[in-house]
Amino acid sequence: MATTKELSVEDKLRAIYDLQLIDSRIDEIRNVRGELPLEVEDLEDEVAGLSTRSEKLKNDLDTIEDLIKVKKNAIDEHKESIKRYTKQQDTVRNNREFNSLTKEVEFQELEIQLAEKQIKEMKASIEHKKEVISQSKERLETKSNHLKHKKSELNAIMAETAKEEAFLTEKSEEYQKLIEERLMAAYNRIRSSVRNGLAVVSIERGASAGSFFTIPPQTQVEIASRKKIITDEHSGRILVDSVLAEEEKEKMEKLFAKF
What pTM value is reported for the model? Predict the structure, then answer.
């Protein structure tokens, strides 16, 4: 094909329709992957979050276990103090000293009761956290297995289509270089604004493909003459005649058939 400046209008139409066919094929390949890449990414984030949460819960358990040991040691110290104060009561010289030691014993007993209550609460907390850890572990295993499956599925699709996508992407870049900047800008603008990515369409049954708006006969004649670039007044899409479209589809199908 000639250089960009020497292209006839017909050559431009063929080049941009070929580009559309190539880009549409790339879209099909990517649509096969669908939401899989996003699903994998979301699952990876979820698995990472669950792992972090499980680690935090395990660390919390260790902290509580350490606190229980501290409280048990404190209870032992309080009991020793009670023994000491009780023994001292045997050698007191007056009631005031006896009462003072009695209050100390009562205080130590209250401290023991408080510590035992706290230990009981911490043990209940441990049981609750162990239950949460067990549930988190099950959920983590489920999500990890799901992630493994989805990754395997994505990798299989990628392996199957990677070469074709790379080849078509290279072809798309080649055809883009054949098309003048203004026309290429229009193509990209239209393509990005429509859901199906079709910026160039053929005439089918008197209307642009996918549209119900009839194209006037005179305009259809102008499109078929391939003397100028004509766009659909309703959708803005670039229009080509059905004969040209069939010829280019046949050519591109041979290209796609390599894969």
Answer: 0.62
